[in-house]
Design brief:
The complex is a heterodimer of chains A (247) and B (302). By secondary structure, chain A is α/β, with parallel strands linked by helices. In chain A, strands 6-7-8-3-9-10 form a 6-stranded mixed β-sheet, with helices on both faces. Chain A has a 4-stranded antiparallel β-sheet with strand order 2-1-4-5. In chain A, helix 5 packs across helix 6 and helix 6 packs parallel to helix 7. In chain B, helix 2 crosses helix 11. Chain B is globular. The chains are: A alpha/beta (247), B mainly alpha (302). At the A-B interface, strand 6 and helix 4 of A face helix 8 and helix 9 of B.
């Protein structure tokens, strides 16, 4: 068994008294390509945001290689939903991707040639190099997504969290991102992807977490992605909540 | 023409023009961030909240020196902003509601204090009302020095924290994940907004000041797709409005400087919204029509 890259303990998150995540325990081994699957409102985005301290949980904690997130920030990359920013911002594609280097640069230092070069290489990987000088408002949804993925690649992290990278993108983008995910995995990186499309889980991922406020199950796709588990996941959250409590 | 030349050699006018230009440059630059972060109204709240600070400072220190009055303005302006940010952060009240509420309360309090000061006999009070709508003609040489220093205090951090502010304005969540504290950056940026507003209080006044923050930035955004050029253009627009407003008000009798500066910067913004290439409304309409004609001549119906 590989080392555990991420360990989540007793994580509970609520928005205004309503629990969104309930007592989540999760162990993610290094080097897996994991989908987080569940119905709308199951807390998928909340889970990854709570893991990297973007949302404050009521209880629980997440450890990266046995240490809190703060100590390993630079080894963890995050690709937010592309709808989370204003794409009319006055900046270029290359500029946005270069932002991925800012973390390693630290305060005050400006990105130089080395950083630009890294950004260019990442753009190549997502087939976006011809767009480097474009203003970002001129991009299609799929191209925006690839820019975000490129920005994360530049960070050169060991763990990547991606929030719905396949949401509303074209076939070309989907293929290009899938290829990248595999490449990351082959390089020993751990990738956690919030995913919507149940049809492609088996094809794209080797691990899966089934989530509906509580963790229904997680583990290798072959073992975990069963009809019975899916039924449990896509039932009303309260159903599964009471059932599990009764266990 | 001749009168224009004689004007430009006029000492008072030069002082006022310089002050208005400084104001335009500072608020133009920092205003870009307020606009891009969709926090345009923060300027309005800050400037209105500066009024009680001016009055309180006069009451407590008894001095009409610009430094002291503006320090008071800075303190209450800053407190108001922090209250707004915290209401937004800690309660379920929405940002714009908090803003509107705090703006009105502070401004009302400010008016109460000013009225009170006017009723104190022998208080040598004349002059504090100038902060309501501004009175550029009262600017002195030492005021300009204060304004200059304060302007630098805003512009230098923008240069030093260029990449951080850009990141914060584009994607605050990502900023947090790569290890920059958005709380700290937010606080610095907000403080800079407060400072830049204080610079303009004497010229434009608390009521109109927020337009000096928003209008140049909105105008500049129309002409460019790069943040650096936007900030420079916005400063230039602000300075242009400041200087031309000063000149116009000195040529025409009884023309108040602050309001005319605001009118000019708004005209610049409207021209930009209408006629800028690419983003301008007129340009867009022409392009749409051309596409339509082309597709019709190609036998395609839209």
């Amino acid at each position: 068994m590989n080392n555990i890259a991420v360990k989540v303990n007793d994580l509970t998150v609520a928005y205004h008294k309503k629990p969104v995540l309930w007592d989540v325990d999760l162990e993610i081994p290094e080097g897996v390509l994991m989908a987080v699957v569940g119905p709308n409102g199951a807390g998928k985005t909340t889970l990854i945001k709570a893991m990297i301290n973007l949302i404050k949980p009521i209880t629980g904690r997440t450890l990266f290689w046995g240490e809190p997130y703060q100590n390993n920030r630079k080894r963890v990359g995050y690709v937010p939903q592309r709808g989370s920013v204003d794409w009319d911002f006055p900046t270029s594609v290359l500029d946005v991707v270069t932002m991925g280097t800012y973390g390693k640069l630290g305060w005050f230092k400006r990105p130089g040639k080395k950083e630009k070069q890294k950004a260019i290489e990442a753009l190549k990987k997502v087939d976006m190099l011809p767009y480097a000088d474009r203003q970002i408002s001129q991009l299609s949804g799929g191209q925006q997504q690839r820019v975000f993925v490129a920005r994360a690649l530049v960070q050169d992290s060991d763990i990547y969290f991606m929030d719905e990278p396949f949401q509303g993108v074209d076939v070309k983008t989907e293929k290009s991102i899938v290829k990248l995910l595999e490449e990351l995995k082959n390089n020993g990186k751990t990738v956690i992807v919030v995913h919507h499309d149940l049809q492609t889980v088996t094809e794209y991922f080797d691990w899966v977490t089934l989530l509906n406020t509580i963790i229904i199950d997680y583990g290798p796709v072959k073992k975990t992605f069963t009809e019975e588990n899916l039924k449990k996941t896509y039932r009303s959250p309260l159903d599964s909540f009471y059932k599990n409590k009764g266990k | 023409m001749e009168s224009l030349f004689s004007l430009l050699s006029d000492y008072t006018l030069r002082i006022v023009a310089l002050g208005s230009a400084l104001l335009g440059i500072t608020s133009g630059a920092i205003g870009c961030y307020a606009v891009l972060r969709k926090q345009s109204l923060i300027g309005d709240a800050v400037s209105h909240a500066a009024l009680p600070g001016i009055g309180l400072s006069f009451l407590l220190i008894g001095s009409k020196n610009t430094e002291w009055l503006l320090l008071g303005a800075f303190i209450t302006g800053w407190i108001a902003t922090i209250i707004v940010l915290n209401i937004d952060l800690l309660s379920r009240i929405k940002y714009d509601n908090a803003l509107a509420m705090i703006l009105a309360v502070f401004f009302g309090f400010g008016l109460v204090i000013l009225t009170y000061i006017q009723k104190i006999p022998n208080s040598n009070q004349a002059g504090l009302e100038k902060f309501l709508f501004g009175q550029a003609s009262t600017l002195l040489r030492r005021d300009i020095i204060v304004m200059g220093i304060v302007s630098l205090l805003t512009l230098i951090p923008i240069m030093i924290l260029w990449k951080e502010f850009k990141l914060l304005s584009f994607d605050a969540t990502f900023t947090d994940t790569i290890g920059f504290s958005t709380k700290k950056l937010d606080l610095i940026l907000t403080t800079l907004i407060v400072i830049s507003i204080i610079v303009g209080l004497q010229t434009v006044g608390v009521v109109l000041m927020s337009s000096m923050l928003i209008a140049p930035a909105v105008a500049a955004r129309q002409w460019t797709d790069r943040l650096s050029i936007m900030v420079i253009l916005s400063s230039l627009f602000g300075a242009t409005a400041g200087i031309s407003g000063t000149i116009i008000s000195s040529l025409v009798k009884n023309m108040p400087t602050g309001p005319i500066i605001v009118v000019i910067i708004t005209i610049i913004a409207f021209i930009s919204i209408l006629f800028a290439p690419n983003r301008g409304i007129v340009f867009k309409k022409i392009r749409e029509r051309r596409n339509k004609i082309e597709s019709q001549s190609n036998g395609i119906r839209l």
